[in-house]
Design brief:
The chain has a 5-stranded mixed beta sheet with strand order 1-4-5-3-2, covered by helices on one side. It has a 4-stranded antiparallel beta sheet with strand order 6-7-8-9, with helices on one face. A 3-stranded mixed beta sheet has the order 10-12-11, covered by helices on one side. The chain is of the alpha+beta class.
Length: 248
């Protein structure tokens, strides 16, 4: 994903800004007001603007020797790019949240109801408990069922391919992560992975499997991940774009 970058001059003048560190700023774009967070990183060498982790605004990294006023000017100069990224994300979320369709294996699948209490979701069928229930809730329960069926065998297959041993696979309803791995060899996966493309699903599984070798996110860990799964960058980009799935 593209990020805006500004290299700080060696003789930059430090000025006191009205904002205080940790305070959320709001800048006016062409069609929306955009919240901006500012974070100082002593190991950063330049100003960087990217979408924040909540995907509702931006975050500016301030390098050593930088200041809030310059950071705010930098955010304003690159606000048009950020606004475009947020619009793109909202369009994807809107498409994914269509009441007549749902994401399955990375594709938008139409939900077609019949008179006998059935909902057809591509090649799968969901039988409704009653006419008064939320259809999407029951469809999601079907997806969770598919996740429990599809994900554990795939974990076993990929673990064997990489010569790793997994003690147990748990399919859970996580709201902040796609997966996790414990020191006891238990891999937990989000049921929503069945909504992602197969290569994204495999990436999350491989990512967690590599934690069996490195229980951290060090440079060595990421080297293992990239070697085991060359499509890492593409998968990460898809996940960033569809991060709202975790909250929907």
């Amino acid at each position: 994903m593209f990020i805006a970058v500004f290299r700080k001059g060696s003789n930059a003048i430090l000025m006191q800004a009205n904002l205080t560190m940790g305070q959320r700023d709001v800048l006016d774009g062409t069609t929306m007001s955009i919240p901006i967070d500012y974070r100082k990183r002593h190991n950063a060498r330049r100003y960087i603007l990217r979408m924040n982790e909540w995907r509702d605004g931006g975050c500016v990294t301030i390098p050593r020797g930088g200041n809030l006023e310059e950071a705010r000017k930098f955010a304003k100069r690159n606000l048009l790019w950020l606004e475009g990224q947020l619009k793109k994300l909202r369009d994807h979320v809107k498409a994914a949240g269509d009441q007549n369709s749902i994401l399955y294996s990375g594709e938008k699948v139409s939900l077609e109801a019949s008179q006998d209490g059935l909902v057809f979701m591509g090649e799968h069928t969901v039988r409704l408990a009653s006419d008064n229930v939320d259809i999407r809730t029951q469809v999601e329960e079907k997806l969770w069922e598919l996740a429990r069926t599809e994900l554990p065998p795939r974990v076993a297959e990929l673990a064997a391919r990489h010569g790793l041993r997994v003690n147990r696979v748990s399919v859970r309803n996580q709201r902040s992560r796609w997966g996790s791995c414990s020191a006891r060899g238990v891999i937990s996966l989000n049921w929503r992975l069945v909504q992602t493309p197969e290569y994204v699903r495999d990436y999350i599984i491989v990512h967690e499997l590599m934690h069996l070798r490195e229980m951290n996110h060090s440079h060595r860990f990421w080297k293992l991940v990239h070697e085991a799964f060359p499509q890492t960058q593409a998968a990460e980009q898809w996940l960033r774009l569809h991060a709202a799935l975790l909250r929907n």
